[in-house]
Amino acid sequence: MREMPSRIRTTAQGGYIMYYDSNGNPRAVERTDTLAACITKVYWWMTLALAVSGFSAYIVGTSEGLTKILVKNPGIFMVFAIIEIAMVIGIGMGIKKLSAATATALFILYAAINGITLSVIFLAYTMSSIAQVFGITAATFAGMAIVGTTTKRDLTGMGSFLTMALLGLIIASIVNLFWRNDMLYWICSYAGVLIFVGLTAYDANKIKQMYLAAGTEDGELAGRIAVIGALTLYLDFVNLFLYLLRLFGRRR
Questions:
Q1: Which distant-in-sequence residues (6+ apart) come within 8 Å of 10 by Cβ?
Q2: Alpha-carbon distance 134 to 238, whole Å?
Q3: Which of 214, 190, 204 is closest to 158 using CA atoms?
Q4: d(Cα 217, Cα 29) in Å, to the nearest integer?
Q5: How far is residue 81's CA from residue 36's CA, in Å, rounded to a whole number?
Q6: How far apart are CA 83 and CA 139, in angstroms?
Q7: Which residues lie across from 11 on neighbouring strands?
Q8: Cα dist from 87 to 49, 109, 128, 215, 251, whole Å
């Protein structure tokens, strides 16, 4: 992997980007069309995963028989949730050892299982409000992803802050499962939106930096980066959608 400087300036000409360090020394060259193609692949995989999740969520959520099975057997729901957590951890930790094809298959399988657990939103919210909030999420996500991909700023510090904020949000949400405080519920909802809006920009920028550091000539490596990048942005999108749904969704 090429080590990239923390502060860079760039010049672009003839379909290439030249990266310089803070002293003006050239550090790396990247073909803009190749980088764009790799980043596009990330968003294609993310979009496919969202489509798979949406399809499985709709099939289960609109089937009276299947929803009854989930509602009457919470243990099944918990099993799916545990499988999801295990798969995310497994893909993340094993991405260097997995082939791009295997990682992709696991990612799509994860998306299908996640769709099953997400199907409960059809019981809690109206179909029209789910569609409206999905549109809001897509527009917000797209805007922040563009910002993260195109910015020249170093977002490392932002990522560290958002990670700590996310940890605090998880702890507060677990506490409120037992406390059931309405004020804390709404604080967590607004905080969740802000955190995942920020994480979307940060993760989009991080994916670009991963490609720049690794280069795009190695197809297998580029494929693995595409999968882990798509998984990261998929999780950002889904969590942003769920927190926005808590704020703007109309309950049945």
A1: 17, 18, 19, 20, 152
A2: 9
A3: 204
A4: 12
A5: 34
A6: 30
A7: 18
A8: 14, 9, 31, 27, 31
Phi, psi of 25 (to 5 degrees): -85, 135
Confidence of residue 42 (pLDDT cuts 50, 70, 90): very high
How many whole angstroms separate alpha carbon 168 and alpha carbon 172? Answer: 6
Record the tokens describing residue 52, joined without a space. Answer: 């798979």
pLDDT, tens digit (0-9, with 9 covering 90-100), for 123-179:
899 999 999 999 999 999 999 999 999 988 888 889 999 999 999 999 999 999 999
Q: Take residue 150 and report the two structure tokens written for it.
A: 């195109």
User: Tens of pLDDT along 112-126?
Assistant: 999 999 999 998 999
Structure tokens at 32: 């803009």
Nearest alpha carbon to residue 94 among 208, 234, 204, 224? 224
- For residue 131 the two structure tokens come to 């569609």
Q: How far is CA 34 from the centre of its chain?
A: 22
